[in-house]
Amino acid sequence: MLLIYLLVLAVFSTAVFVLARRAARRRATVVKAHSAAGYHGAWALIWAAVPALIILILASTFDARIERTVLIASAPEAVQALDAPRRAAFIEDARIVGAGGMPRQIWTGDLSTALQEEAARASRVDGALAWGGLIAAILAALIGAGLAWRQTRPEFRARNRVEAFVSVALFACSAVAILTTIGIVASLVFESLRFFQTVPITEFLFGTQWSPQIAIRADQVGSTGAFGAVPLFVGTFLIMVIAMLVAGPIGLFSAIYLAEYAGPKRRAVIKPVLEILAGVPTVVYGFFAALTVGPSFRAFFNWIGAQLVGGPLDGLGQHLLLVQNQMALVAGAVMGIMLIPFVSSLSDDIINAVPQSLRDGSYAMGATRSETIKRVVLPAALPGIAGAFLLAVSRAIGETMIVTMAAGLAARTTLNPLDTVTTVTVQIVTLLTGDQEFDSAKTLAAFGLGLTLFVVTLILNFAAQRIVQTYREQYD
Amino acid sequence: MRFNLFRQLDGAESGGTAATSPLLAPPHAAHQEPTGPIKIQTRDVSVFYGDKQALFDVSVDIPDKAVTAFIGPSGCGKSSFLRCLNRMNDTIPIARVKGSIRMDGEDIYDKALDPVLLRARVGMVFQKPNPFPKSIFENVAYGPRIHGLTENKTELADRVEQSLKRAGLWAEVADRLDAAATGLSGGQQQRLVIARAIAVEPEVILMDEPCSALDPIATAKIEELMDELREEYCLVIVTHSMAQAARVSQRTAFFHMGELVEFDDTETIFQNPRDKRTLDYITGRFG
Ligand SMILES: Nc1ncnc2c1ncn2[C@@H]1O[C@H](COP(=O)(O)OP(=O)(O)OP(=O)(O)O)[C@@H](O)[C@H]1O
Ligand SMILES: [Mg+2]
């Protein structure tokens, strides 16, 4: 329905635009107009479309809510007597029946008859609201168009008005983006503060026990839950370091190859391929890690372990497998592969920004290509490359999918890359998936972790951007 | 014999007012001094960028212990030819060079010759000063380091000092050798770059419009420096300033549309050019 209204509104306001433009042209023949006719048309269009649009949107957003309030206010005794959730369910069923559907629950006795009455009333209220909204929108469109029409005089400064409106509209769009971000951050901070009321922030940041599963009955094991996030930080750090050990050198060297050695032809092939790699969804890397890399790493390291130490035998006379599919090394290595295109494409840009005149200067001194790269190009590009690495680190610690699938859940404080570890992001996922009460410390812990992650990546991104920025300025 | 460009030209046109332009007085009346033996000999050198030919059959004999100037309108191939002399054209993938270039009788385009070694013998200074983003000391030490010219730290420091002194920069930077080279003024940077080139003790120094980014005072300093360096090196400069060519060079080559039009003593080029195009160019009628 709304779609049809919008369509009608679009046609109407276009017509208003055309008419107002024509009128402006006609009226401007005697006196020279301040604004071009098109601006008069646009001004009329704004007045015809915007108020009506706002009314339509408000009406369709709030009509269900208004309907519910009206229905509850005037419901019969039997309904009023119900407790809040039951009453809400009843009203909901009344609306469904009123719209011609089947009730979701079985209501008996008084309620059964009341349901029919309420359904009839619901459909009346619904109709009234819909008509009310529509009429209000039509009126708004007509009045708006009429007002603007009267302003279509040659001396009217339509251009300035239209430009002011456009700039306000653009500002509103950017404000939406900023306000949403602020809102998200605010809720993150707010919920974290609630969490830190139950779990002291020092315990959260420095505690070494992480077992957020709070048992339902007090006599079960782990009835209290522990929220020391150090194991998560260590796990995140370990995986990040492994990822950077993979992505850093490979990314940097491929960037050097691309920028300094590859001719234009090879560059034209390799660069797009790397950019495609950067577009592979992380979940694909995730199952690559879980299904391919994990098992083969496990087999390999268990074989090595068996060769080296022998180790205990299981019932079938084979060596007990000590390394599992899920380990920091697998998650880190695959994440590193994911980051290679990211690092190499950023570093490539930065190396390319080193002025050719520096290379020429070095070649003219009789330096070879590798000497030039090692002693002139890389030192000159170093700050920028450091910035690129920081951005990669920030992506590594925020990455969720790969670690969820390949790192594991055991919160262990270990730096052994063959161990199962867990990360901040993985824990946020496990804390929030499944049935949750919104108020439990367990759920709120996710906000604490989220805030920590946010602060760290914010600092990293900020530092990286500053570094890259000053680096760019140096050569402008 | 001192000569003056404008006197000669004025004489040709208006019957001779003998005004001497101070601009054109050579700093040390350099022009009568004898030049050394032939250092670089080119025969039928052509340069191609892809399919486009930028330079056509250039043959010149460049003398040692002298300044040779290349002049000519923009795009006529001066830089292209200069870059042939230290094989910097090798670093441009689409560039091709034909013909023969001999330095001290040795073919520098010989397959067996390593361009990297050649460039240690033929230094180059570019139009825009391009100090490396390192300290002043490290900039000058760059060449000696990569070529392993010095045994130890004191020798290296000595060589840096000597080079800076010869480039006339020592007094200005002696107390801040560890400061960033990019913090120097344009003129200082250009002299630093010259010091950097000198530090590897090249035999030839090529300069491509070394003063075009500098103010007159810095330019005068560099010109003075060229005149001193001439005593030990073979200098080849590209310049758009007729006055500069007249002031510092002994030999001048005039290029036009990729061809060498005229190559002679600077004096002759400016006083008695054989070719009409040369005359038109030096009197500012085109280019
Ligand atoms: N790297 C290059 N790729 C393609 N063409 C080039 C390249 N360098 C020079 N050329 C061409 O070769 C011709 C000669 O250029 P060159 O730079 O030698 O002129 P120039 O005399 O030094 O000019 P200027 O006085 O402006 O420096 C020009 O037509 C130019 O377009
Ligand atoms: Mg040039």
TrEMBL record, chain A:
Residues 233-464 form the ABC transmembrane type-1 domain. SUPFAM superfamilies: MetI-like (SSF161098). It is found in: Cell inner membrane; Cell membrane. The keyword Hydrolase does not apply. Keywords: Cell inner membrane, Cell membrane, Membrane, Phosphate transport, Transmembrane, Transmembrane helix, Transport. GO terms for biological process: phosphate ion transport. It comes from the Bacteria. PROSITE patterns: ABC_TM1. It is a multi-pass membrane protein. Gene3D superfamilies: MetI-like (1.10.3720.10). The chain crosses the membrane at residues 6-24, 36-59, 128-150, 162-190, 232-259, 280-301, 321-343, 376-397, 444-464. It holds the Pfam family BPD_transp_1. GO terms for molecular function: phosphate transmembrane transporter activity. GO terms for cellular component: plasma membrane. Belongs to the binding-protein-dependent transport system permease family. CysTW subfamily. Part of the binding-protein-dependent transport system for phosphate; probably responsible for the translocation of the substrate across the membrane. PANTHER family: PHOSPHATE TRANSPORT SYSTEM PERMEASE, PHOSPHATE TRANSPORT SYSTEM PERMEASE PROTEIN. This is Phosphate transport system permease protein. It comes from Brevundimonas abyssalis TAR-001. The lineage of its organism: Bacteria, Pseudomonadati, Pseudomonadota, Alphaproteobacteria, Caulobacterales.
Automatic annotation (TrEMBL), chain B:
It comes from the Bacteria. Residues 40-282 form the ABC transporter domain. GO terms for biological process: phosphate ion transmembrane transport. Signal peptide: none annotated. InterPro entries: AAA+_ATPase, ABC_transporter-like_ATP-bd, ABC_transporter-like_CS, P-loop_NTPase, PstB-like. GO terms for cellular component: membrane. Keywords: ATP-binding, Nucleotide-binding, Phosphate transport, Transport. This is Phosphate transport ATP-binding protein PstB. PANTHER family: ABC TRANSPORTER I FAMILY MEMBER 17. It comes from Brevundimonas abyssalis TAR-001.
